Fold this protein.
Amino acid sequence: MLILYIAYFIVTFSVNNNMVTNEVITGSNFKKWKEDIEFAMEMTDVDLSLVTDKPGELTVASTDDEKLVHAAWMKSNRICLLSMRRLILDHLKSGLPTNCTAKELMTTISERYRVSSNADIGSLLQVLFNMKYDGNGGVRDYVIRMVDYQTKLKALKVDLPDTCIVHQALNTLPPEFSIIKTNYNSQDESWSINDLISRVFAEEKKLKKEKDQVALYVAGSNSHKGKKSKTYTNKVVHGTTKEPGQSSNIGPNKVSFKKRVTTASFVKRKVT
């Protein structure tokens, strides 16, 4: 069973409690839009009209299997056309065929929003060589994202060797990974992508452990200082500290005064 929930800029498909949300095409999101449509139609088992041409018209001689295929294709075509048109803004529908199959409509839309491979190559290279590791997601995921761009470029016939990715990854890591960079630059042998990932991941774990230890030490040191200061303050308040020249048996709330004694010498004069 297929249920369509229509909302502005999205269409949600509910099939057997499975929800799939599709974006409305805006032009720049065509690639994702197409992938979402194909996924949704396949998940709902109505993608037949997107992957096959329209079957021949039924005749008296048509077999039961041919009738079943024809009925399934017609149902698929109706649902796919409805879904695709719901996912196109009104002002973008201009020039699109109205009397066509779902497969033909997808082909027409693909031609309209087709992006040249040169533009794709330029965009991918720009992203790849402007990447900087910011600590989010972990260093292993960072290298894997670089490999993903390498794979996409390879599909466009731009083959970047693993050595290039290794150099680019190391050059864009923060100074904390300088030991890894030094180790690599001091060797004549190149690392594979897997070697790089294992080394930088191990270094990241070591750096994190050291950072946690430093934080724990600082926290403990501050806690010790706080207790010491509090103890001294309490002693002063209760008059239990011993100052130079002060009696050690002075109790709380008592004040000690040192008496300064001046000794005077008296000389008896004989009065004649």
Observations:
- The longest strand covers residues 10-15.
- The chain has two domains: 3-112, 117-209.
